[in-house]
Design a protein that fits this description.
The complex is a heterodimer of chains A (about 80) and B (about 325).
Chain A: H1 4-19, H2 21-40, H3 45-75
Helix pairs in contact in A: 1-3, 2-3
Chain B: H1 6-23, E1 37-41, E2 44-47, H2 48-68, H3 78-97, H4 99-122, E3 132-136, E4 141-147, E5 150-152, E6 159-160, E7 171-177, H5 186-208, H6 210-214, H7 227-272, H8 275-309, H9 313-328
Antiparallel strand pairs in B: 1-2, 3-7, 4-5, 4-6, 4-7
Classes of the chains: A mainly alpha (about 80), B alpha+beta (about 325).
Chain lengths: ~80, ~325
């Protein structure tokens, strides 16, 4: 297939671009709810923050999977 | 001048910016996912990420040796720093898993945290990825210059692609660095993930018994409520098994993706922009390093806690957190 290089480049950009939509929305909702909770109960800020960072990692990981796909398309 | 005010610092930064743009340009990075082998010992290939792992091990051993030799009851200096870190991790482990299990899980969780953290942060030091062996005699690469016994890639080098002619009398080659960040190797992250999952399963079987823990995956308990519920519970058991394996994949790729992307980002940014701006991305890499270490260790802890707790798991969590929050404030 002659246009393999062009297709790989387009695929890499699409993978990362579309793959960032979900985690972006997810992290925004998560952080927003965490802010709300801290605002309502400032004493629990430490516990809320710890749990938020943990849940953030799960969300972020989905975006990282998309990044890995894009990187493998570009560099392998 | 007696004291540097904001304006002077800004002026110096701008001057450095422009000087950097003209004089300090990095070469276009040639990136690959697989780590490059540096040498072989009798058939066993030593890659540059393996060397970086050894550097991390030596650094960690020396650090903790310095902190624990000549231990005082009232800690000072480096013992104080390490003790506060270890205590913070221990409290975190106990707040998530409860007092008894926190003690059991803490060695693995603490080791994973310190290992991943040192891997990430050491890979930001100068020398990682820049000093190495030159593979000359290739048909593509960058033009290197001789500076005494060393070959040097000059700032803004000429890139020779396949099929182009190399400049006369110059060496064309690629750099194989001696050291590369250990977390950028899929093998490191995969082995950490397998280790974590092995211990989670081991603790689950040890503290809940094989029948109770295995019953989560091969779930025949629904058949008591009739054949239809039995089939549903059995399928839920299969889904649990698949999600256990998916955790290995997610552990591996979360750490690998973050670290490899960070390495690519730094290499490209240093190529693109003057070097003062690259400092912003270095601080991002510092932050990502510690967050990913915390996340890997923390997720191992959370999964181990839920594996050993079975049905009573949720309550442990809430007690631990409320006590922790009350004690902390």
């Amino acid at each position: 297939m002659e246009n393999a290089e062009a297709a790989k480049l387009i695929a890499a950009s699409l993978a990362m671009g579309l793959g960032a939509v979900g985690p972006g929305i997810g992290i925004g909702i998560l952080a927003g709810k965490a802010m709300e909770a801290i605002g309502r109960n400032p004493e629990a800020a430490g516990a809320i923050q710890t749990n938020m960072i943990l849940a953030l990692a799960f969300c972020e990981a989905i975006g990282i999977y998309a990044l890995v796909v894009a990187l493998i398309l570009k560099f392998v | 001048m007696d004291r540097l005010g904001g304006k002077q610092i800004g002026l110096i930064a701008v001057v450095l910016l422009f000087a950097g743009a003209f004089f300090v340009r990095a070469p276009l990075p040639i990136l690959q996912v697989a780590p490059e082998p540096v040498f072989t010992i009798g058939g066993f290939v030593i890659t540059n990420t393996l060397l970086a792992t050894w550097v991390t091990m030596v650094v960690l051993l020396l650090l903790f040796r310095a902190a624990t030799s000549n231990m005082q009851l009232v800690p000072r200096g480096i013992q104080n720093v390490i003790e506060s870190l270890v205590e913070a991790l221990y409290d975190f482990a106990q707040s998530v898993a409860g007092p008894r299990f926190g003690k059991v899980f803490f060695p693995l969780v603490g080791t994973i945290f310190f290992f991943v953290l040192c891997n990430s942060w050491l890979s930001l030091l100068p020398g990682f990825g820049t000093i190495g062996v030159a593979k000359t005699g290739e048909h593509e690469g960058v033009v290197m210059e001789q500076a005494g016994p060393l070959l040097v890639i000059p700032p803004s080098p000429t890139i020779v692609k396949e099929g182009q002619h190399a400049p006369e009398g110059k060496l064309v080659g690629e750099l194989v660095p001696f050291l590369r960040g250990a977390n950028t190797d899929l093998k490191t992250t995969l082995s950490l993930a397998l280790l974590a999952m092995f211990f989670i399963e081991f603790w689950g079987i040890k503290y809940q018994g094989l029948a109770a823990y295995g019953g989560k995956f091969v779930n025949f308990s629904g058949f008591k409520q009739g054949p239809f519920m039995g089939v549903i519970y059995f399928i839920i058991g299969i889904i649990e098994t698949i999600s256990e394996f998916a955790r290995i994949i997610s552990f591996t790729f979360r750490l690998f993706g973050n670290m490899f992307a960070g390495e690519v980002l730094l290499a490209v940014i240093v190529f693109l922009v003057p070097w003062v701006v690259a400092d912003v991305f270095y601080s991002l890499e510092l932050f990502v390093g510690i967050v990913q270490a915390l996340v890997f260790a923390g997720l191992t802890l959370v999964f181990a806690a839920s594996a050993t707790a079975g049905h009573g798991g949720g309550h442990e969590d809430e007690h631990g957190h409320s006590e922790h929050a009350a004690a902390g404030h």
